[in-house]
Design goal:
Chains A, B: InterPro entries: Creatin/AminoP/Spt16_N, Creatinase/aminopeptidase-like, Creatinase_N, Pept_M24, Peptidase_M24B. The structure is a homodimer. By secondary structure, chain A is α/β, with parallel strands linked by helices. Helix content of chain A is about 30%, strand content about 25%. At the A-B interface, helix 5 and strand 6 of A face helix 5 and strand 6 of B.
């Protein structure tokens, strides 16, 4: 068993909900409506066993106490959530109309942000119960709700990153030649679980498959001369890891070395562009310029990175055209990649946090092209 | 490896989509809008790797060919789905507006049924792109979309039920005394997987816990004298199993025997009430009357059963007040239960299909109170 970090406190949850309500007010919203998923768990600590047709709804209204409406069957669960004391819980019973129960918590003509993943069943129920309310997807109006992490959250991401580093160092010792992508991916998954990870995702792209950035692990057998992209992560103590390294089976060619060096240089340039006040697209440009200057522009990866936290992919998106400003506490992946169709690809990606002084890498393992057997 | 049944054909999928569109027309709908989930897979065979912020939408319009809109990245997957030849596929690319792409497939003022689980993000996108369209939750307007199974589907449910029967017969040989609920539940899960099941759900409720119909498997240690409810199932070849039996550790008391006999009698009465044209609540009454007459009415289970197919719980619901008529091809669980708070509970539940001649049990294993060690 690993050391579980101290749980978040009632004050942590109260602070998150209060900040979210303030952000809503500043955006001209009457409030936030949150259904089960990462936002609900992050805001109030409640994680229903399943997302179902029974409405569970957290209502955050500027200037009012947070309200959580739950099915009566799930009330005991909700009351035992770590943030339960920071919300006022009410319930509805089977046979009652949950949307009627929700109307007492909403302004009849309010404009609300609603979780992207809220079921249509529930949104239509609210729209019918309160025809003058209007709704916007949460990530459209408040994309950065969970983007700024506090020190405890950064510590959890750093711990997840260290675990992923350890997995990478262990995988270098396994045999690659003669085994299938799916077998190496299973090794990665097992190592991640040994490193206290859950919800593991592992992708192994070898040889020509490495040139396809959307490759799914398959049954190709690895052989000498293959580039192999290892892209993996999962959740540890509720926070995500995501690490990508490209290794080579046996000795690489000169061109393979050149492309790998280029990708690492580009990734370093993106990392160095991280600073409070820099925009996402400036970081993306930092990587892309190097690749373009080297003549590989048309083969560059589409995106440099993405936010990471209680989910593996979240705003901010480090892509061209994205003008969001970086701020201290934001955590995201920084990657660079070159994909030569039909031949090979290289990607290197780390998790980085933005501090007042610039970027800090949470992954520390070597970014060089390891030679595997 | 078990023998995989013959896959459903393009004709099977075409027939399902055509029937769904006809049902939509009869309900006064302009069509059905289906996003990833069991309905999408059942209708056209497409099962995206994940449900994401990228819109995937099946549009079924009476009198028109089925249309499937997918993200361009997922087009290869969609084109390899077993029902792909029965739909016309189009795609949208990152950077394009998927809702604008969808408008070409919808009537600008149509009234549509939409999957219950469609993300609010997508529903709001459609509502904004086509402000005069209106939407109703699919299970509200067409609850029986998947309820009538064809012979191939019933065969898969029968195969899943036979596998669950085999698991039950095997679990009787394991040790119960001195082991925890979680350990017996893990045994059930392992046996189900050995019987080619995926997405396994197992609940073990022992002693006083058996009196709580919402108990989740815990760490209680089983001991002589315990009633133990075993409630388990999963998916086999895409179709669900669900079996509940109540066993006893060592010799039961006379009252325990009496209650178990009563539950079995009530379950048999419900089974005998199954016939085309009977209503769901008549079947429910069939079980409940016996329990009430025996003086246990206030301790009776809330519901007799639920539909089963590509999901483990779906309409029709066999409960009081539910006036849906049974029809040949419907498949559902039939259960009965008595829960004596603080003492013990008993539940017995099988999967049954409605034929022209009445109910046919798909589970064949003994319903008596087995004595375990």
């Amino acid at each position: 068993m690993h050391d579980t970090p101290a749980p978040f406190t009632e004050e942590d949850y109260a602070a998150r909900m209060s900040r979210a309500a303030r952000d809503a007010a500043e955006t001209g919203l009457a409030g936030l409506l949150i259904t089960p998923g990462p936002d609900l768990t992050w805001l109030c600590g409640h994680r229903p066993a399943a997302t179902t047709e029974r409405l569970t709804l957290l209502v955050l209204t500027p200037g009012s106490e947070p309200r959580l409406l739950v099915p009566s069957l799930e009330r005991p669960d909700a009351e035992s959530a770590p943030g339960a004391d920071a919300v006022r819980i009410s319930d509805w019973r089977d046979g009652q109309d949950p949307y009627a129960a929700a109307t007492g918590l909403l302004l009849p003509n309010g404009r609300y942000a609603v979780s992207d993943t809220t079921w249509a069943l529930h949104l239509l129920g609210l729209q019918e119960a309160l025809p003058l309310t209007t709704y916007r997807p949460l990530t459209v109006v408040l994309p950065l709700l969970r983007a700024m992490k506090d020190d405890h959250e950064v510590a959890r991401l750093a711990s997840a990153a260290a675990a992923a580093d350890a997995v990478y160092e262990e995988i270098l010792a396994v045999r690659f030649t003669g085994r299938r992508e799916s077998e190496v991916a299973a090794d990665l998954a097992r190592l991640l679980r040994e490193q206290s990870h859950s919800q593991v995702v592992t992708v192994v792209s070898s040889g020509r498959n490495s040139a396809n950035p959307h490759h799914r692990t398959g049954e190709r057998t690895l052989k000498k001369g293959d580039m192999v992209i290892l892209d993996f992560g999962g959740l540890k103590d509720g926070y995500a890891s995501h690490l990508t390294r490209t290794v080579h089976v046996g000795e690489p060619t000169e061109e393979e070395r050149t492309v790998h060096d280029l990708v690492r240089t580009a990734q370093q340039a993106a990392f160095e562009a991280v600073a409070p006040g820099a925009t996402c697209q400036e970081v993306d440009r930092g990587a892309r310029r190097w690749i373009e200057d080297a003549g590989y522009g048309e083969y560059a990866a589409e995106r440099t990175g993405h936010g990471i936290g209680v989910t593996a992919h979240e705003p901010p998106h480090l892509t061209g055209g994205e003008e969001t400003f970086l701020a201290p506490g934001m955590c995201f992946s920084i990657g660079s990649g070159v994909y030569l169709p039909g031949r090979f690809g290289v990607r290197v990606e780390d998790v980085v946090t933005c501090t007042a002084d610039g970027g800090r890498r949470l992954n520390a393992t070597d970014r060089g092209m390891a030679i595997v057997a």
